[in-house]
Amino acid sequence: MARAKLIRRQKWTDEQGNLYEIILWKVEKNARHPEGVRYRLAFIRSGEETPAVLYDNHHPKGHHRHIGNHEESYKFSTARRLIADFLAQARQFAGDEK
Fold this sequence. Notes:
alpha+beta; six-stranded antiparallel sheet; 6 strands; 16% helix
């Protein structure tokens, strides 16, 4: 099996001290990752340790997201859409709805 290839790794802090992290890997298409992508996108509020928003697709759950204490499935279409959806939700939790 081929190794995962890092597509994007980005980590930054906003003006309020909230942490954003986006990690995307290209992986061999298989039953666990039929789209050939693996990801973890996290938003952690300033002063907290647990993500308020977390999108990931680890086995066996597949595509899903954690919003606060709630977990739900996520309909993945493209990496671009994934990042846009994540940032929109993170901004809501940051109190910065643009």
